[in-house]
Amino acid sequence: ASIGHDDAVLNIHPWSLAIQENQDIIIEVIERMKGRPNVEFVTLGDFYFNIDPTLRLALGAWKYFKENTESSTGLVYPNVLINDDYTYKHPKAAIWDIASSLLGIASAEKLGIISLKEGIHRITRILDFLQTC
Question: Residues in domain DUF3131 (predicted)?
């Protein structure tokens, strides 16, 4: 965190939480800060969304992933054709489409768009499907 600026970020390194005394101090400070004027706790995803407009593009891409994931395989449909009368989701995927699905999931997790648990679930579903091919 920096003093004297409008916005500040408190970055707590994960390895510092390995020491119980550090955990206690951090929890105490956070509890004391809750509810104070001009103090807001946000998720990492919300933080990035507010400071990086390109994250909006990533959220748009993730919306495509969510809406076009094939439920039994976990793969994202590589081609979706939409017109006024129907939506067609092309059911075949090439190796690069599979790689795009995996990379998109990993990227969404790294950006804080989805949780690690959801990312692992989605990737595991794809890998389980690939073992049946």
Answer: 57-132
Domain ranges of the chain: 1-41, 53-131
Distance between start and end Cα atoms, the chain: 51
Closest CA to 72 of 16, 130, 115, 120: 130
Tokens for 5?
């600026």
In whole angstroms, give the CA distance from residue 1 to residue 21: 20
Copy the structure tokens of residue 58: 């990533």
Residue for token pair 């690690």:
116
Q: Would you call 127 helix, strand, or coil by DSSP?
A: helix
What pLDDT digit, counting tens, does each position of 30-73 carry?
A: 888 888 888 888 777 777 667 677 777 888 899 989 998 998 89
Task: Give the helix ranges, DSSP H, for 52-114.
Answer: 54-67, 95-110
